[in-house]
Amino acid sequence: MPELPEAEVVVSQLRGRVLGAVLKDSWVGRPDIVRQGIETLDWYRGTSIITIQRRGKSVVLGFSRNHETRYLLAELGMTGLLLFRSPNASYQKHTHLILSLEGGLEPELRYWNPRRFGRIYLFDRTGLERFCHKRFGCDPLTVPWEQFRQLVKGRRGRLKALLMYQQVIAGIGNIYANEILYRTRLHPYRTASRLNSRTIRRLYDVMQEVLLDAIRDGGSSVRDFLAPNGIKGHLVYDKVGEPCPAKCGKRIRRLVGERSSFFCPTCQRRK
DNA sequence: CGTTGAACCTGTTTGC
DNA sequence: TGCAAACAGGTTCAAC
């Protein structure tokens, strides 16, 4: 369920429930999921959680002891979840890491990921920064307009591929890329560098609006999501054959090739 | 170097 | 109903 808005919702819930908690114990189910590079989880025992942040689609917890901080980065992949559980809750298949906590509002945090796309990484500060620098480009919510404009201008590939290219723009996945392009009325296969500045501006504004709306809704990139107000989370994703929400008369189509692209053939022209 | 598609896994949905 | 194929929110690596 994880793109930027979902990761943001995870982070805000973790902040409210376990920020400041002390790590009492940890359990690793799959060493191939929890990458213990230079760091090992042993060090983390007895430390307290002092920072909780999002990087791209990943969630990063900072653990500290005696002014030294180390980090745990959780990639959620396609199916990864961080879940609060009570210590006597039964073991659920595909649980790869359990953190026992004390002093927060939740006694246990579990990493559950059936499809196992996604890892847990342990880093010191420089390790974290090096990793993030290599993997994550700008954040779509905070990138300055001028930087975004230049970055789009400089890419000759497909617009949708650019939106999902984490090393350039970190946080947007297939669902939100589709929504952003639909709301901007741009075909997924338009060439990024050929957009004019006015169009890029529209893309920039819509991108932030779509992501912020989704965060406000508590994350919507799940199938059959329905916001409390009864409005569907997505306009086009997974809506093949349904009429275009703009009532242009055409039906939503799907392009297969990279990932599934859902779009309206009249509202989003390829040119 | 930039871009594209297949591979990685398991669970669920779709179609015969 | 039963079974197999198709498909799924992401990232990485090889091939062009």
Structural class: alpha+beta
Oligomer: single chain
Radius of gyration: 20 Å
Our measurement of the CA-to-CA distance between the termini, rounded to an integer number of angstroms, reads 33 Å
Unreliable segments of 5+ consecutive residues: 223-232
Strand content: 15-25%
Strand order of the largest sheet: 2-9-5-4-3
What global shape is seen? elongated
Biggest sheet features: 5 strands, mixed
Helical content stands at: 25-40%
Overall pLDDT level: 91
Order of helices and strands: HEEHEEEEEEEHHHHHEE
Describe this structure in words.
- The chain has helices at 4-18, 41-44, 125-135, 145-153, 159-163, 174-184, 197-216, and strands spanning 22-28, 34-35, 48-55, 58-65, 68-74, 81-84, 95-102, 108-112, 120-124, 253-255, 261-263.
- Strands 2-9-5-4-3 form a five-stranded mixed β-sheet, with helices on both faces. A four-stranded antiparallel β-sheet has the order 1-7-8-6.
- Mean pLDDT is 91; it is low at 223-232.
- With 271 residues, it is of the alpha+beta class.
- The chain binds a DNA duplex (16 and 16 nucleotides) through helix 6.
Summarize the structure.
The protein is α+β, with helices and mostly antiparallel strands and 271 residues long. The protein is built from seven helices and eleven strands.
